[in-house]
Specification:
The structure is a single chain. This protein has one helix spanning about 1-35. By secondary structure, it is an all-alpha fold. It has a domain at about 1-40. The chain is elongated and about 70 Å long. The termini are far apart. The model has no long low-confidence stretch (mean pLDDT about 90).
């Protein structure tokens, strides 16, 4: 009985912590967007190794 209670309590605490972390990350991303920071992956050079074979593909 004690182990079930302990497992449930750890589950609840981890769920609360996950929700807190998600909200902090969202707030940080929103603040970065407000400052004008571009989010996401940087664009590549625009050329592909497969460009010479484009017609064949």
């Amino acid at each position: 009985m004690s182990s079930k209670l302990l497992t449930t309590m750890f589950g609840i605490v981890s769920e609360i912590e996950r929700d807190r972390l998600k909200s902090c990350v969202k707030e940080g991303l929103d603040a970065a967007k407000a400052r004008g920071v571009k989010l996401g992956r940087k664009p590549g050079p625009g050329k592909s190794k497969l460009d010479p074979q484009r017609e064949l593909i």
